[in-house]
């Protein structure tokens, strides 16, 4: 069996592990378009902040790839020939496959506005981006980050750590709009400002001129480096050209199979079922990319046996020592919530009846593991127990029903010695 | 392999935490030294819930969410199935903390990294198991 | 009352260079001796220390030591510090002094004045590692002439666990001993507190007690047993009853004893239906009928001055097993004056009773079991040679489980999870470890006994029984030697 994987990052690695859990012999070829080897995208901000300390961005080591018998081939795929089961590379090379995985991820969204091609306007997505930024940044210069999502925030952090004056500009009403609630955003905002990152919300970029950025409100800011972090769009062109079913992302069934039975897709490039809302959407998250890749790998190598139940949004980011963890989604705008706050710590949980559907934890990462799992596994926990938990949210106070369930699953009766 | 804690015989004495800390960070089990000279950081935690105390520790899950979700590949599994943190690689994003259903992986704020049980993989029998005065901890397959 | 003039009995020494403020001692002391405040200051209340050593044993840096309080009284051989302190205590409380465990006084210990024989040339010794050594013995009436075979208890080792009621000791003690007894091929004893429902499966390995309070006695209890033991008295407190304070009568204890929870459990001094040997005979007969003559009936009495006559009466009343408990026998709670001043040493009682029953020709109608202060396998050997069929151990078993002999059993605050019913303390004794330790102890004793028997050239424990030629007394008067029925050293 010949397995070919387009794209060589997280989903690809998941797939390698999935394939190898079943098929120890088949050949696996990864087409690495970026030509940087198997690296982890989220590490780029650490690399930019401390190039010496974090210069190794490898997600899995060379020995690991070797051990799994993976052939990493440099080359950008330009076409998939489904009838001949071949992938054509930019240099004309042809690679044939029995099973193909599209794990091409996404690329940063670049708005079509004047001046956007200026050399000091950058994106923040690849090693190349970081190298480009590194080559032009100067301590004390003004950096503007457009977009306060996870990527924008990580860019802001690393530039701040390199000594630039950093401002983050957000179009929506508050920062990290997809992750935080207005209340928690307020708190994080204060903490960020204290840590030296300025923020401004409700401003939409309209044009970039020589050393200044213009916004819809008329605001005009001086700038030396501008980083676009306005979201991503999946790399779906290949799939589209090949005639696979595509929406915003590639459409796959529960086995991660595309509309072609020999082609699977996983990671940021596909649409994933959000198990809280039931809708299908782009969920560009590393843990999901890995899991999807893994399951796709298992299904590619064996019979289609491992169904993917979908995922939940989850993010953990640390910005200058401020920890923000959040998981889940709101099924509707007006969802009941409970809040706990103490000094610089904050926890907000959203309840849909007896089900936890989302939480936001600021500087309180310790309790988030069980919270995430409660959401993902849809564990029913009565509201009064949540109310009790929220009086002092520690692991010790976490509702016992949760631990009991976990113990049962781990197949150990913790209460009785066997 | 994992350590299982029986609440029925857990005394809540806390020796597991103390010996856990002493076994790590190069202190080789020297409780006195780590507490007097170092910064004791226990991996597993004794939880004091209403129903009693119990040691919250790593299950070294077969499909470990922390390994799969680690953004840097710092959480690894060794040939014996032990899930451990490679401190050369951990950047302290706390994704693993957020993903661990057992609430076991926890921040090591001081170093911007994380702490988790490694079953004392360098020294043999996990220190908590070896030093539990009441056999409430057991290493099982 | 205002000021207590009693100084502490013990002093807790904390080596500050070693203390790491981990708080294990604070969490482990049920007497609240150790306190740690937010500023990291330790505050030790020596007054409350009972020297159970729990903190010292668990301290991870060995920072703790406990010594007798060094404050001396002016020396006086008559007014010893203990006697002065006892007066302080009574002047403070106005009550009877209570204590746990057995008589701690320095009365003559006959076991320590007996020496065991060994073979040299004239008869060969036996190597127990190479040759079979029979340790099995049977308890019960062996006089089969009258009316056929009588029920017998088969013991793979001549040792059993003695009566300690659930309530005076924790459920985990019962669990440990029940499991150990089963694995060792011997029996444990429920004591007078009934059988905990968790242990129904171990009933068949238990000797169940019927005592003056009749706690927990019902048909199923009698049925689900190996033998029934009527408890007349106990070596630690002959002649008086028992009193389990209400605090120890938890829900579980109340169920097993069939009495209301948190109420004092009072065992009357006598059985109110036994005022003579004839009455005892009636109860024995009743129990035999109730158990369809399938189980031996034992009678346990304390070793007192008239023990020989009492023993003769008890055997004639139909006891298949006669248990004699000496004055060193342990207890959960006894008035200190009684514990320390009433009764006689079991060695002497045993020798006398064995001789008397032989003289009267009724020795085969009963098995003799002794208890009270058996410390090691040599004590067991000497007891058997003096005439016992088997030996009961209690204190030694508890020590194996972790007891540190602080003698505070009656407070219910046993830090080792032994003499307590408080759930948080009970759990400190993990019966999986407890049973293992009890098994280890008895297995070790068995090895030692086989070694000693081999040395004597004896290959069956029953051949040692009553074989007083294997003993010699040392440092004993002619009279004592005569009473014990042994020759002196050199004879
Ligand atoms: C700065 C930053 C921080 C992040 N932090 C987090 C975080 O903390 N937590 C989290 O959950 N997620 C985070 N993410 C998102 C996370 O990186 C992605 O979800 C994850 O990388 C997706 O993996 P993937 O394998 O699907 O896609 P990608 O990692 O995007 O990999 C796709 C690869 O395919 C290559 N490729 C594309 N098209 C072709 C082609 N035609 N031929 C050959 N190769 C091709 C691309 O060049 C790329 O190398 C972060 C992202 C960034 C940029
Ligand atoms: S905190 Fe460290 S170990 Fe945990 S996910 Fe992040 S990088 Fe990996």
From TrEMBL, chain A:
The keyword Signal does not apply. One of its GO terms (molecular function) is oxidoreductase activity. It holds the Pfam family Pyr_redox_2. Gene3D superfamilies: FAD/NAD(P)-binding domain. Its cofactor is FAD. Keywords: FAD, Flavoprotein. InterPro entries: FAD-bd_OxRdtase (IPR050260), FAD/NAD-bd_sf (IPR036188), FAD/NAD-binding_dom (IPR023753). Residues 2-293 form the FAD/NAD(P)-binding domain. This is FAD-dependent pyridine nucleotide-disulphide oxidoreductase. It comes from Syntrophomonas zehnderi OL-4.
From TrEMBL, chain B:
CDD domains: CooF_like. It holds the Pfam family Fer4_11. The keyword 4Fe-4S applies. It comes from the Bacteria. Residues 81-110 form the 4Fe-4S ferredoxin-type domain. The keyword DNA repair does not apply. One of its GO terms (molecular function) is 4 iron, 4 sulfur cluster binding. PROSITE patterns: 4FE4S_FER_1 (PS00198), 4FE4S_FER_2 (PS51379). Keywords: 4Fe-4S, Iron, Iron-sulfur, Metal-binding. InterPro entries: 4Fe4S_Fe-S-bd, 4Fe4S_Fe_S_CS, ET_IronSulfur_Cluster-Binding. PANTHER family: PROTEIN NRFC (PTHR43177), PROTEIN NRFC HOMOLOG (PTHR43177:SF3). This is 4Fe-4S ferredoxin-type, iron-sulphur binding domain. It comes from Syntrophomonas zehnderi OL-4.
TrEMBL record, chain C:
The keyword rRNA-binding does not apply. Keywords: 4Fe-4S, Amino-acid biosynthesis, Glutamate biosynthesis, Iron, Iron-sulfur, Metal-binding, Oxidoreductase. Its EC number is 1.4.1.13. Transmembrane segments: none annotated. GO terms for molecular function: 4 iron, 4 sulfur cluster binding; glutamate synthase (NADPH) activity; metal ion binding. One of its GO terms (biological process) is glutamate biosynthetic process. [4Fe-4S] cluster 2 binds at residues 29, 49, 52, 55. Signal peptide: none annotated. [4Fe-4S] cluster 1 binds at residues 19, 22, 25, 59. InterPro entries: 4Fe4S_Fe-S-bd, 4Fe4S_Fe_S_CS, Aldolase_TIM, GltB, GltB_archl_type, Glu_synthdom. Residues 10-39, 40-69 form the 4Fe-4S ferredoxin-type domain. It catalyses: 2 L-glutamate + NADP(+) = L-glutamine + 2-oxoglutarate + NADPH + H(+). It is an enzyme of class 1 (oxidoreductase). Belongs to the glutamate synthase family. This is glutamate synthase (NADPH). It comes from Syntrophomonas zehnderi OL-4.
